[in-house]
Amino acid sequence: MYSKTIQARKEVLKRAHALKNKLNPITKQHYTFGEAQRHAWKVQRIKEQLKTGTTSFAFVKKSTGQLSNRVGTTNLRTIPTDKHPNGRGTSKKINPLVIRFFDLDKKSWRSFSAETLAA
Q: Domains of the chain: which residue ranges?
């Protein structure tokens, strides 16, 4: 449990540094580091809920600016076997702001930017 907590803190701080000075889509102002940390912890909680089962969350679509409500998971027990990751993903550097999840309504993999997660 202890090492898991340290790893979560590392992820949160990495995400907070990436969020710092980004534009908050809701307030249209830049995140301060304190706001970035709070927001990064919210994202971390969503990621942990996605791992353990299904969860509902909302984010602002970058293309339209509309609030999008989703129900998703990353738990392989709830994802159809034909939709499981096949291990042939890209070798691109992983962006700490991109949150990937399986959308249970659309039955496909989706992603959103952590900066657009609605509180």
A: 2-78+97-116
> What span, in angstroms and rounded, lies between the C-alpha atoms of 92 and 40?
22
90 has a pLDDT exceeding 80: no
Q: What is the pLDDT of residues 3-38, one digit of tens each?
A: 568 888 999 999 999 999 888 777 788 889 999 999
Show contacts of 18-25: CB within 8 Å, 24+ apart: 18/95, 18/96, 18/97, 18/114, 19/97, 19/114, 19/115, 22/97, 22/115, 23/115, 24/115, 25/60, 25/62, 25/65, 25/115, 25/116
Say yes or no to pLDDT of 1 above 60.
Answer: no
Mean pLDDT of 53-72: 92
The pLDDT value given to residue 94? 78
Cα gap 32→5, rounded to integer Å:
24
Q: Provide the strand spans (E) within the chain.
A: 55-60, 67-73, 98-103, 108-113
In whole angstroms, give the CA distance from residue 15 to residue 20: 9
